[in-house]
Amino acid sequence: MLKHDYMPVSPDQPLSSEAPLQLLLFVDGRPKSRQQVQRIRAYLKELQTGYHFELQIVDVGQQPYLAEHFKLVATPALIKIHPEPRQIITGSNIIGQLKNWWPRWQASVDAYLKLQEDLQERLDENSRVVSPKSTITSVAVSAELIRLSDEIFRLKQEQEKLQEQLQFKDRVIAVLAHDLRNPLTAVAIAIETLQSNYNIETGQFQRLKPAMTAHLLKQARSQTKIIDRMITDLLQVGRGNDTELPIVPQKMDIRKLCIDVLEELSDRYTAKSQQLETDIPKDLPYVYADPERIHQVLVNLLDNAIKYTPVSGKISVTGLHRTTQKVQISIGDTGPGIPYENREQIFENHFRLQRDQGTEGYGIGLCVCQRIIRAHYGHIWVDSVVNGGAWFHFTLPVYPS
């Protein structure tokens, strides 16, 4: 009597079969496909043959790895996986093709069973017969290996993403730790100056005019606010998964900020007898930017200009209403300049020119400047001057009137 086994394949259970003729029918959830599958199954039940065969139904939505194993590009698809050779039937006329191939499949099963009988007869009575490995089981193992390979690839991608986030946090923490030195130094200088001139007995500041005392107190207070913002950034970076520095843009007077930063760093360029030139028009429009972040950019660029400009050299700060949408700020110096081939690399994290290996710094200031300016949808770049020195330029969006 003809025996047909129809088994839906569970993604949680391994495939297994010892039938001499093993078939897999791959289906999907489309209504048209379901009708075609019903006709195929009905036809198989009508086949007049005495061979035992097993048909297993595979839903490609539940087990895409099996479809990948057989490199299927269309469903439904009927696959003869045993006996070898494997054969795949697809298309809209599977039943017609099955009518053509079924006698040949019967012949291949007869040949397979005859071969098994001949091998059995040749074995000695004390010999143990080793059953052939199930083809369906081996297919399931291969599919599971594909699934595990995909899972390993996904986990590897997640690991790389986490490593990238950790590296970004390390860079930001290093940048902020580096930038904390400037406001801390300014606060320390202001406090030391006030302390050294304070008379405990009289309760007054000696050798300090009221205007200077007020200036030092204002300096200490403003720099303390900057330090507080940087500490907040450190905490945010430690908690979050973002890979960008947070900014809070607002209407900002870029001219006033440039003057404030120059005053803030005046002790440094004065100590090196450096000449300061400014050309910042009074009618320069307001920009839409984060004041503390742009303060950070200006301090970094001017810090580099002071550091690399020799004694009695010149530092320049200019402003330009470049277009109706952009304002450009430029900072120039008369230092050694930037080699042409390194103009892009100097904005990379931790990149330092060979000549600067012995100079104080971490090579991260320009990297964070670029991040900040890009976060404002601006652009930052550097030009070298023929007779020496470098010009750093960056653009910011004009505040809409």
Largest sheet: 5 strands, mixed
SSE class: alpha+beta
Q: Would you list the SSEs in sequence order as H and E?
A: EEHEHEEHHHEEHEHHEEHEEHEE
Radius of gyration, in angstroms, nearest whole number: 39 Å
Structure in words:
The chain is an alpha+beta fold and 401 residues long. Helices cover 47% and strands 18% of the residues. The chain has 10 helices and 14 strands. It has helices at 31-46, 64-69, 94-122, 135-179, 181-196, 210-239, 254-264, 266-271, 291-308, 365-375; strands at 4-8, 21-27, 53-59, 77-82, 87-90, 198-199, 204-205, 250-252, 275-279, 287-289, 314-320, 326-333, 380-384, 390-397. The protein has a 5-stranded mixed sheet with strand order 1-3-2-4-5. A 5-stranded mixed sheet has the order 9-11-12-14-13. The chain has a two-stranded antiparallel sheet with strand order 6-7. The radius of gyration is 39 Å and the shape is rod-shaped.
Keyphrases for this structure?
single chain; alpha+beta; 14 strands; 5-stranded mixed sheet; 10 helices; 401 residues
